[in-house]
Amino acid sequence: MEKGLRHGDPLSPLLFVLVVDVLHRMLGEDVRNGRIAPLLVERDHIELSHLQFADDTILFFPLEIETIVNYKRLLRCFEMMSGLSINFDKSHLISVNCEQEWVEQVCDLLECKQAVLLVRYLEISLGANPLLVKT
User: Fold this and answer.
1) 4 burial class (0-12, 13-18, 19+ CB within 10 angstroms)?
2) Per the database record, which ranges form the Reverse transcriptase domain (predicted)?
3) Are residues 71 and 60 in contact, defined by beta-carbon separation less than 8 angstroms?
4) In this structure, how many other beta carbons lie within 10 angstroms of the beta carbon of residue 43?
5) CA 82, CA 94: separation in Å to the nearest integer?
6) pLDDT by residue (tens digit) across 17-29?
7) How many Cα neighbours within 13 Å face the side chain of 74?
């Protein structure tokens, strides 16, 4: 007798959404407890720590090494709890107004690659004036 769900089983997407919701709650809890500092969008006074869509998660953080280390710990904890693995080889760090040396240190710590704006996410161009982007 086999355990688990087969790929394509109708319950698989629902279970995945339930598990990824745990990541959302873990991130929110760490922000509330001060372990993760959100990025402050000053113009609108919005604190932004993460966005999720399906199996994609975008993390936002200020230039604070403690927050970055805590993000890494949280993600490793999520991997152990859920049995899912985060593919850091497919992960990218996109920095805005940061020194290159700092960006390289963070990429090493997070085991990810560096990317620059213009980036396409969910078929949307990020970081560019959409009126100037050729389709």
Assistant:
1) exposed
2) 1-107
3) no
4) 6
5) 27
6) 888 899 999 999 9
7) 21
User: How far apart (Å, rounded) are the C-alpha atoms in residues 52 and 20?
Assistant: 9
Contacts of 11 (CB under 8 A, 6+ apart): 5
Supply angle C-alpha 125, 131, 135, rounded to 5.
55
CA distance 133 to 123: 13
Region 59-63: what's the mean pLDDT? Answer: 85
Q: What pLDDT was estimated at residue 9?
A: 62
Task: Parse the chain into domains and list their residue ranges.
Answer: 1-86, 87-135
CB 73 within 8 A of CB 67: no
The single residue listed with the structure tokens 């850091």 is: 88
Check residue 42 and report its DSSP letter.
T
DSSP string, 48-104: E-EEEETTEEEE---S-HHHHHHHHHHHHHHHHHHS----GGG-EEE-SS--HHHHH
Please say whether the beta carbons of 99 and 63 come within 8 A.
Answer: no
pTM higher than 0.70: yes
